[in-house]
Each structure stands twice: as C-alpha cells, then as structure tokens.
Specification:
The structure is a single chain. The protein is an alpha/beta fold. 53% of the residues lie in helices and 7% in strands. It is built from 20 helices and 7 strands. The strands form 2 sheets. A 5-stranded mixed beta sheet has the order 4-3-5-7-6. The protein has a two-stranded antiparallel ribbon with strand order 1-2. A hairpin with a 2-residue loop joins β6 and β7. α4 runs antiparallel to α5, α7 runs parallel beside α9 and α8 runs parallel beside α10. The chain is globular.
Length: 424
Amino acid sequence: MSHWRAPFVTIIGRNLLGDHTSFILGLVVPLYRLFPEPQGILVLQTLVLAGGAIPVYMLARKLLHSTAMATALAAVLLFNPILQRGNLDQFHPEAFQVVIIGLAIYAAHERKYRLLIIMAMLSLLVKEDAAVLVAPLGVWVAVRRERRVGIFIVGAALIWSIVANLLIIPALLGGASIYTRRIPFNGALGSLSASFHRPVAVVKYFLSGGRPFYLWQLGAMTAFIALLAPDIVAIGAFVVFENLLSTDLLMHSIIFQYTLPLSTVLVMAVVIAIARQKRRRDQWLLTGEALAATLLTCVVWGAAPFSAATVAPAWVSAAGVRSLNQLERSLPPNAAVSAWLPIVAHVDHRPQVYLWPNPFAQYYWGFQNHSGQPLPAAHDVQYLLLPMKLSSVDFPGVFKKISSDFALVRHAGDFGLFKRVSNT
C-alpha cells in the first residue's frame, strides 16, 4: 500500500482488506513508507496503546477535580495486563481502538458530539466487527445524552457492518470471511437454534475453554469496580460475548489482541463509577482499590519487569538476529523470496514474499489452505532465506525436494541465503 500497489498479501494469500476491513491502516501507510520495517509500526502500536491513558486522565480530571486521582486512574490502564500482553503479540489494528474508543466515551460523556462522531467513524474503520463496540455506544448516547446523535451512530454502525461483511469482504475474497468459521454449532443460525433446542449444550460450551476464568480476569483487573457503572460496561458487552462465543481459544484470552478494546471501556467505567460516589472518601478508597488491583494482576498476569507470569522467549537469539540482518542486506530489493517466519515481516516490502514453505507447498495460504500442493508462483521465487538446519516443524521435506534448484550464496551464523540456479 505504501507503494500504491493492490493490498494483496502474498504471505497469507489474501487481500489485506478482505482478510479484515482495517481501512484504518491507511493512516499507517505514510509511516511505513518512511520506516519500511516492522519496528516502526511496533513503536506506533506502543504509542497508541499508551495513548488510551489520555482520555482516562482527561475524564477523571474533569469529573474528580484531582490530578492525583486522575494520574492513578491513568496508571490503572497502563499497568493493565491486557495492554502489556497485547503489545507483545505482534502488531494488530485493534490497538487503535484503545485510544479511539476511550476518546469516543469521553466525548459522549462530555457532549462533545463532533469529536464523538469522528471517533465513532474511525472506530468502524478498524475492523469489520467494530459495530459491536460502536452501536452500544450509540445506544448509550441516545438514552443518556442526545437521541439524534445516538441514533445516527447506531445506524452508521449497522450499515457499515452490513457493507463490510456482506459486500466488501466477499468481493475481495471471493467468499465469506474465513473468521465466520469460529462460530460454534455450525454457524450463527446453528448457535441460535441450539439456544432453544439444546440449552444444556450451550451452557456447557460457555463454561468450557477457560471462559469463566476469562470473565474473572476482566473484572479482577479493576477490582470489579467497573460494575458500579453498568451502563458503561454494557458498551463492551457484545465484544465480551463475541470473544466468549468464538471457538478460537485465543479470543477469550487476555494475552491476545481481541481483548484490547475492552481495557479502555472497563477503565473508563471505573472512572465514571468513582465519580458517581457522593463522598470524597469513597472516591479515594475506590481509586486506591482499582490501582491496587491492577498492580496485583500486573504482577500475576502482566508482562512488566516485576511480573511473575512467564513471557514467551524470543524466537531468535540476539546473535541470530544479527545474522539474519546481514543476510537481509544481501537480498536484492525486488527479488521474490520465500522466508522463515521470524524474518518474513522484515523482507516484506517487495511484490512477492512468501512464508516458507509457500509457494512450494501450500500452507496457511488463501482460505487457510494446508493442502501442501505447490502454488503457481513456485517458479517465480528467486531466493530462500532459511535456517541452515530446518527443524521438524520447518518442513525439511519441502526443502529436500527443491534443494537441487537452489545454491547457498551466503550464510551467517545458523542461517543461509539460497539463490535459484535452475528451474526444473
């Protein structure tokens, strides 16, 4: 996109905006043109996640008239394990929701409708399912603030959801979103039918897969104080339901990006809940409880230096990173390449870059196809950037089949750069 090319991702074999309607990424394009490496967008993600503390502080300062309490409540968000864990899970557009939905709730509460509408529209551009967050916010505005503005937001959210899911994604993918397969009981209609005809099975489903613990975590990170503002918590209720409904275990885990938007909703609910307390002593007490809870859960589940939870180690050692960087510099800028997973994002600013073993053996490509059949582009690949010794999970058999077509032209440490010498 930063080079004005169609956003078809050869790494996953899908159109980027068909995989998710994350049109918000258009705002990242200029940055990526200046810094065409993953580090740039990782820094951006850190900034937008931290930016969620701004609306928290602004609303708390306005409602509580205390810099100390506002600062403490901003810290409740920044120490939240959801933000820390999500920030370590690569880059995901959902990170934008942390600051966007925070500003939207602030604008809704303070009747700043122009800012509210802008944030609501930006929120819808993050992902095709953003309506589950924006529509409830519109309902809150319609009931608690300005009816016409709220109805407009709800209508815009529903219309965009239909356009994104039923028009844009099928047009770009040639079929429905691959993520609709995550709905249990054979899809949405099956889940609805099961609710009436198999209620016991539905209850058992929602009690499985760590879902109750996920709910406990969401509440425990702010000492359940958010529940004192149930109308604000309800803004994120459909996101919680979506995550619990999914068959993908990652969606009801605080470690991954799916929970990021809820962090701001819950902390904004805490701010408003505290502000609704009439006695100053109660406000201070609840602020202290919220901060203590987020610090305690940060120790148990977070990724801070003082956290007890184990953070997954780096896939590549520091020496390995230096070796891969050397080989990357030897790779011609526009050459088609198939690369090992940890390095593929660093060499993706080219028309053709594939995640090994693609395109020689189809794996997690297109509609998540794992057929193992070669793709037509297999003859286009000019270079391979791989470990010298492929482990059992790195498809050594695929390399053995094509090894006679490639010659090692440079190696550094445990990694090698291979160049095509024949096209048999």
